[in-house]
Amino acid sequence: MSKRILHVVSNVAHFDDPSHPTGLWLSELTHAWDVFAGKRYNQMIVSPRGGRSPFEPRALKWPLLDASAKAWLNDPAKMALLDKTASPDEVDPDGVDAIYFTGGHAVMWDFPDSTGLQAITRAIWERGCIVSAVCHGYCGLLNTRLSTGRLLVDGRKLTGFSWTEEVLAGVAKAMPFNAEAEMKRRGARYEKALLPYVSNVVVDGRLVTGQNPFSAKSTAKRVVALL
Question: Dihedral sign, CA of 39, 101, 141, 48?
């Protein structure tokens, strides 16, 4: 039976300032999707509210818009997937082998407090399956508690978009929180590469996390290796 991957994307279209657009960092989805498609895994997409997932404009510009992302933009069937994402209550976690949280700054506004996503993640983890995230996607793990009441990330090694990278991106002052610091505050053993914006993946058992957009493909490959 084919493995089933659940991708998580954001519904948020702008920062607190409506004039500052944001959304899904497309290549973080497409790079992983391509890896999983190569294994003929079944894939579906969920978002905190269901429905449309907007794109982060900066990710659609050269040189960040690569062949993988372009192919998605030129495929009406793929584009339709991001217009009609599932809502958490439409997802049966019992059939999911791995959840993969995508990033883009948008997720900082709607991932952390989504009780629906937390319930799905908890169910997947407690079934002995894989939880993964790339870049800002790890914000989706900030407040997920297990049935014991313990935070999933407490005591676990992980990575995600660093505060240094946030500053270098020029948007640190507009962020609702410091994701790296919040992860550490929750007991996570946060790690990052020596240099910013290089691919970096951290694996702690069934928890697989990538640091930045350039880590998406490697993150997906590590998930495949565990599957």
Answer: negative
Per-residue pLDDT for the chain (227 aa), expressed as one digit of tens each?
799 999 999 999 999 999 999 999 999 999 999 999 999 999 999 999 999 999 999 999 988 899 999 999 999 999 999 999 999 999 999 999 999 999 999 999 999 999 999 999 999 999 999 999 999 999 999 999 999 999 999 999 999 999 999 999 999 999 999 999 999 999 999 999 999 999 999 999 999 999 999 999 999 999 999 99
User: Can you tell me the distance from the alpha carbon of 207 to that of 216, in angstroms, rounded to the nearest whole number?
Assistant: 14
| Selection from 154, 210, 214, 208 nearest residue 183 by Cα | 154
Could you state, in order of their start, the residue ranges of all structural domains in the chain?
Answer: 4-226
Report whether CATH 3.40.50.880 matches the domain 4-226.
yes
DSSP strand pairing (201-204 vs 207-210):
antiparallel
Give me 158's structure tokens. 């992980």
- Answering whether pTM is above 0.90, one says yes
CA 23/CA 11 separation, integer angstroms: 7
Q: Is the peptide bond before 63 cis (omega within 30 degrees of 0)?
A: yes
